[in-house]
Structures are given as structure tokens and as C-alpha cells.
Prior knowledge:
Blueprint: H1 3-16, E1 23-28, E2 33-38, H2 42-46, H3 51-68, E3 77-81, H4 84-106, E4 110-111, H5 117-126, E5 133-138, E6 145-150
Parallel strand pairs: 2-3
Antiparallel strand pairs: 1-2, 4-6, 5-6
Amino acid sequence: MENVEIKTLIEETLNKMSIDFDSVEMEDNGFNTTFQIKTADAGILIGNRGETLEALSYLVRRMINQKLQGTDEKVVFVLDVNQYQTKKLEEFKEGLRTSADRVRLFKEPVELSPMTSYERMIVHSTFTDDPEITTQSEGDGRFRRVILKHASNTSKESKESV
Length: 162
């Protein structure tokens, strides 16, 4: 499915929800595509702690998966409103940097809070090229989390997968 089709689907969904929006713009960061919704009604679309935005993202993904049913195609994208997810991601990465600094300083593992598979993937990719930090996912389901370890304290040289 082309990004233009996804953009159109998002716009149609917003129109059916009677949400006024200025634009839906595509931003490709090389890793995935972000569909940035620009609107004065950001609070309505974001909701309490991003819950409405998360639900909207889920809904759009389900509609896309329905259209792709029977194909091997997989579409990865992020839905954002007025840079909310982008700012949240930067705050998340800043917290990761702080935790990594703690691991470097004390050479003790730091267990992060349970997180989504997308967040775990961000953690693993953030430290892929870091020679001092290794990552390991542990736990099951919604309790799955990442542990940051100092490379000198781990027997495995390779990074763990999400």
C-alpha cells in the first residue's frame, strides 16, 4: 500500500469523525513514515496521555490490514498529532541516555519499565552501535521490558532482539 493511500485513508477517517485539521503530512525518517496531523483540535485527537491517539492509530492500522488481507505486504508507520509523538519520543530517548549514563558510571544493569514492542525496538536500535551498552529483553506480554547492561558485565557480545 502506498503512503499516499494511507494519507488519504487518515484524511477520510478524520473527516468522518468531524475533526477539523489543517493537513496530514508525510515525513520519512529512513526508519518509518510518520503521518503528521496538523490541527487546532489536538487535545481531542491526542486524549488523556495519548490514549485517543493510540486508539486512532490502532483503528487506522486495522483498516489498512483489512485492505492488505491476503497479501504479504506489511506497512509500518507512526501517526502523530502536532508533533506530540515526536516530542514524547525525544523525552523517551533522553530517559534512555540518562539510564545508559548510569550503566556506564556504575557498571550495573538498569531494568527499564515494561514497554511496547515499538518502544523496545527503539531501545535496542538506540544502543546497536554503542560499544559499552548491551540490551536484553525479558518478560512476557505487556510486562516485557529491556535491561541495559554494561558490555564488560555481559557474556554475550550481540544485542538481543525485540
